[in-house]
From TrEMBL:
Coiled coil: none annotated. It comes from Eptatretus burgeri. Gene3D superfamilies: YVTN repeat-like/Quinoprotein amine dehydrogenase (2.130.10.10). Its EC number is 2.3.2.27. The keyword DNA repair does not apply. The lineage of its organism: Eukaryota, Metazoa, Chordata, Craniata, Vertebrata. Pathway: Protein modification; protein ubiquitination. Keywords: Autophagy, Lysosome, Membrane, Metal-binding, Repeat, Transferase, Ubl conjugation pathway, WD repeat, Zinc, Zinc-finger. Residues 491-521, 581-607 are annotated as: Disordered. This is GATOR2 complex protein WDR24. GO terms for cellular component: cytosol; GATOR2 complex; lysosomal membrane.
Length: 804
């Protein structure tokens, strides 16, 4: 065992010692002179000297140590310096008496729990009372003068993670559970708890009563939150909430500091943080000595806020001096910018930059104006640090709200309402793919989300084939065949005349110059695009400039009027692939088909194409026969759809684009609608991150039904499993306490109705609602009608029930 000394502070040192194994918990004696460290492979008592830890007693004695020595928790009685209790991983509760003269200090063994005991706790004022909480969901109270438990408290819930006696109420204790609930019990009543509420979204690993303020209970859970509850009020009320970076394993209030508490994490973070609950995002102090996860913390003396003891998985025991702690707030950036979910903008700047501006003076009680954080004066014991930290940064927070009048001008400006509207009106399943895309595109267009609407239409076009043409309402005025002036882009005689003048002047093909070549190539591309569009293909970017086929100096009045027949195009003869020569390209005369009989519509169109091809064959590098064959196609060149793998890279890039912009709603909605078409190309962890971000936003706006639908339709297995967590509800008969059978409303043992309506006094076989305060309830409609007229419980128990 090696000791390490760091610094000196008022006679005490920051010091540590190496342990024989990883520590699971630590506890301190009443006078602070000894500390016990417990773990799976260690159970020792150390004396705390001025310069080092000195091993005093090793409680793991004997050649063959049993599982009773494998400890998950340890407690030291605050009324007897020789009395210890440990919680074993095999379900045993063991007490130890250090005053025994023999090497074996074990005194009592209680083996009543069926699974691991997570916590043991002594009563502060009662010498012989010990409380335990186990993984089997029960809590047991032991009288050390007897060999068995006095009473058992069944939480009717999942495993118990922590139990703590109240320092102010003699008979009260709190228990935290795996399902996120916290229960308040009375030692005199073991049949049911006095109060129960949901404290965290996930397991609650630790709880601790405030040593001074009656009713303040701090809880920490897997949701990375530390919450302070007021248990003295009629209903548990959340007073403070601290956001950490990892699951909270231990919570301990700091002595003599009303708003300070210490926490350690269960994973990732090895630091012990001391928080001021009034500043929930930056720790007040941090101890970074441990190299692995900290498993146990304890303040050395009940009235000394400067000394903290800790054990960790790195097999070390530390005594921390508060002067040596790091202050993260002193190193934090005083400038910040944040956007609120309702469109508010908040920014923080140094006090010197904003305090001198008369336009930024704070008005009390008005959130729309800037307000200030005032730095507290140094604490008395930090008087020596006043000179050192006199330059601590103080920031001014400015909050600006959006004007309500502007929100009604443009739907885009109110992003929160647009988010809620899209979430509620989007259709993600239950219809064909094309209908889903059309519906979602229409909803996005109504809310001025034009880019999102276009995305849905493109997805329909890619994956729904020929059925994916956009609705006519979304096309430009006049249709896709309109030119700049609204006239038809397929003017027959004008086209023919231009083809005649460019392609057949002086009876032969001319060598095109640069100016003519560029114009012809552009117009040929437009012609091919128009024919392809008529055949149901996607072509070009839809610019109307490409649809202008007439010269700028040519007017349509110079040519006879041309109109398409009702069938658009007359039936053509069968096209011969790969003709041998150009004989079929000869024209009927110098005046073109426009001067022939009135039935020359088909001939006019062919002549128009002839003119275009003749003037641009050399520029394009293709033969006239190939050009005519291309333009004369009246069927799609490809199939209606392509394999989904062809579009997968572009679709994945689109999903990442929206995700990087923060629009996870569009990303997740598209991912659900596409299903296996695109989910296979996205990493599973990335998908899970997208889903969790979207679900968090839905829960912020209380869109619970939409969140449930997203979980149900999720393409990620980890997300789909969220609806299966904590879904079991154990029901017991209120008379014989036996678990109910398959019927759920009738006890198989005593044949009594388990749920009787407090209003009509009949058995409840359907939906049942009950008050968590008095446990009385009944039919949903009956209780709603009763409590809407009177707040008192219908049974006459006197409790003021609340229906929400």
């Amino acid at each position: 065992m090696a000791a390490r000394v760091v610094q000196t502070f008022s006679g005490w040192r920051t010091m540590s010692c190496e342990l024989d194994g990883a520590a699971s918990a630590v506890a301190v004696s009443r006078d602070g002179s000894q500390v016990v460290v417990a773990g799976r492979n260690i159970l020792k008592v150390f004396a705390i000297e001025e310069e080092a830890f000195v091993e005093k007693v090793n409680l793991r004695v004997g050649r063959r140590t049993s599982v009773n020595y494998s400890c998950s928790d340890v407690a030291w009685h605050q009324l007897d310096d020789n009395l210890l209790a440990t919680a074993a991983t095999n379900g045993a509760v063991v007490t130890w008496n250090l005053s025994r003269s023999s090497r074996n200090k074990q005194e009592l063994l209680f083996a009543e729990h069926k699974r691991t005991v997570n916590k043991v706790c002594f009563h502060q004022a009662e010498l012989h009372t010990l409380l335990s909480g186990s993984q089997d969901g029960s809590m047991k109270c032991f009288d050390l003068r007897r060999k068995d438990s006095v009473c058992t408290f069944n939480g009717q819930s999942e495993s118990v993670r922590d139990v703590q006696f109240s320092p102010r109420d003699y008979f009260a204790f709190a228990a935290s559970f795996e399902n996120g609930n916290v229960q308040l019990w009375d030692l005199r009543r073991s049949d049911r708890c006095e109060r129960m509420f949901t404290a965290h979204n996930g397991p609650v690993f630790s709880c601790d009563w405030h040593p001074e303020d009656r009713g303040w209970l701090a809880t920490g859970g897997r949701d990375k939150m530390v919450k302070v509850w007021d248990m003295a009020s009629a209903r548990p009320r959340e007073l403070f909430c601290v956001q950490t970076i990892a699951s909270v394993a231990r919570v301990k209030w700091r002595p003599e500091r009303r708003y300070h508490l210490a926490t350690c994490s269960m994973m990732v973070d090895h630091t012990i943080n001391v928080w001021d609950v009034r500043r929930p995002f930056i720790p007040f102090a941090a101890f970074e000595e441990h190299r692995d996860v900290t498993t146990g913390i304890a303040w050395r003396l009940p009235h000394d806020p400067h000394l903290l003891l800790s054990g960790a998985k790195d097999c070390t025991l530390f005594q921390h001096i508060f002067k040596d702690a790091k202050r993260p707030a002193d190193r934090a950036n005083p400038e910040a910018l944040c956007f609120g979910p309702r469109g508010d903008v908040a920014f923080a700047a140094k006090e010197g930059l904003s305090a001198n501006d008369p336009a930024r003076r704070a008005l009390p009680g008005d959130r729309r104006n800037p307000f200030f954080f005032i730095r507290k004066a140094p604490e008395p014991y930090d008087a020596s640090l006043t000179q050192q930290h006199s330059g601590s940064v103080c920031s001014v927070l400015n909050v600006f709200q959006r004007c309500d009048a502007k929100e009604k001008l443009n739907p885009l400006e109110n992003e929160s309402e647009s988010f809620v509207e899209l979430a509620q009106r989007y259709c993600l399943a239950g219809r064909p793919f094309a209908e889903l895309c059309d519906h979602n595109a229409r909803i996005a267009m109504e809310l001025c989300r034009h880019q999102v609407a276009q995305t849905w239409l493109i997805l329909k076009l890619l994956y729904a084939g020929g059925d994916a043409s956009p609705s006519p309402a979304l096309l430009p005025n006049g249709g896709i065949f309109c030119g700049k002036d609204g006239s038809s882009g397929l003017g027959g005689d004008g086209m023919s005349e231009r083809g005649k003048s460019e392609g057949h002047g002086d009876g032969g093909l001319e060598e095109p110059n640069e100016e003519t070549e560029g114009s012809d190539v552009e117009n040929l591309t437009a012609s091919v695009g128009l024919y392809a569009a008529a055949a149901g293909l996607y072509s070009g970017n839809g610019e109307e400039e490409r649809l202008e086929l007439l010269d700028q100096d040519t007017t349509t009045s110079d040519f006879p009027e041309f109109s398409l027949p009702p069938e658009a195009f007359a039936l053509r003869h069968e096209i011969v692939d790969g003709p041998a020569g150009l004989e079929h390209l000869q024209t009927n005369g110098p005046d073109g088909p426009g001067s022939g009989d009135e039935d020359g519509t088909d001939e006019g169109m062919r002549s128009a194409c002839q003119g275009k091809v003749g003037g641009s064959t050399a520029g394009l590098g293709i033969t006239a026969a190939e050009s005519v064959s291309l333009i004369s196609v009246s069927q799609p060149l490809f199939g209606q759809t392509l394999p989904p793998e062809v579009f997968a890279p572009a679709v994945i890039a689109m999903l990442e684009f929206y995700a990087e912009r923060g629009d996870v709603q569009s990303t997740v909605s598209t991912l659900i609608v596409l299903g296996e078409k695109a989910s296979g190309g996205v990493d599973t962890l990335v998908q899970e991150h997208w889903y969790l971000s979207y679900l968090e936003l839905l829960q912020r706006f209380r869109l619970w039904d939409v969140a449930t639908q997203v979980i149900r339709l999720s393409t990620c297995a980890a997300i789909s499993a969220l609806n299966h967590d904590s879904t079991s509800l154990n029901l017991n008969c209120s008379s014989c306490r036996r678990a109910l059978g398959a019927k759920g409303w009738l006890c198989d043992r005593c044949r009594r109705c388990a749920s009787v309506c407090a209003v009509c006094h009949h058995a409840v076989k359907g939906l049942f609602v009950w008050c968590q305060g008095c446990s009385h309830g009944g039919h949903l409609k009956h209780m709603h009608d009763w409590l809407s007229a009177s707040p008192h419980c219908p049974t006459g128990c006197g409790h003021l029930c609340e229906y929400t």
